[in-house]
Amino acid sequence: MKNTVILLLFLKTLLSCTTQQTSAEQTASIPALVISPETTLVDVRIPEQYETATAKSAVNIPLADIEKNLDFFRKQKQTVVFCNSGRQADQAIKILRKKGIKNVYDGTSLRNIKAIQATSK
Predict the structure, then answer these.
(1) Which of 33, 42, 74, 106 has the smallest number of Cβ neighbours within 10 A?
(2) By CB neighbour count within 10 A (0-12 exposed, 13-18 middle, 19+ buried), where does 68 fall?
(3) What pTM was computed for the model?
């Protein structure tokens, strides 16, 4: 019984730490978005990291500059943001959605985006 309670508390904690997705994001397929010619890929890492390696056709808008580029995001049909591990991408999504931009999706990491691009060839 005690083990069951501990397991349930652990699962509740684990689930409460996950990012809440909107219904639009739940229905959107990140791989389909990444390979769509109508999607803009945005690498939110610092310029030095972007210059070292990035995804095909990605533009660089560092996390620190997201709020300065709201008009850019508003003009895009759909945008997938990514970084190294997903943390900065999560922060970028939160900022953009807070500013009323809904057509943005979390691609998590550069590794994830590159893997999707590699399998779509």
Answers:
(1) 74
(2) exposed
(3) 0.78
